[in-house]
Amino acid sequence: MKIMVLNGPNLNLLGQREPGVYGIATLADVEAMCVAVGTRLGHSVECLQSNHEGVLIDQIHAAGRHHAAGDLLGVVLNAGAFTHTSLALHDAIKGCSPLPVIEVHISNVHARESYRHHSWISPAAAGIVVGFGVDGYVLAIEGLVRKLSAK
Ligand code: DQA
Q: Three-class SS of residue 124?
């Protein structure tokens, strides 16, 4: 089965962007980690990044279709700042139910500015991983696989 790892705006800048907050791993490093953990667990991992809300919505819709067809397990999503603004991403996830989406944040958004405390993704997410640095992507993939194999 396939797992989709979807990264939103500015996550292409990982490694150079506020390293004190997000660390020094690049997006390529993160995607390689995701592929490695997927392979270890017997799944293929497709990684995508976009700075555009509509592209992320289209990718969720595509994931919903693949999930319905039985060839995609779920999505690991770091929606970046769209987390805090995008009712449209919330609606996309809800609209693709029962597609499982695990929300990831590299930083602990709850320990940061108050405008990062609200998430439009959380009420639609199957699980949330926050504040573990880029290891959060690995934890999210492991959690997704465990959650679905427990069913
Ligand atoms: C982030 C947290 C968001 O508030 C921020 O806008 C990001 C990254 C994180 O991974 O910690 O772009 O999602």
A: helix
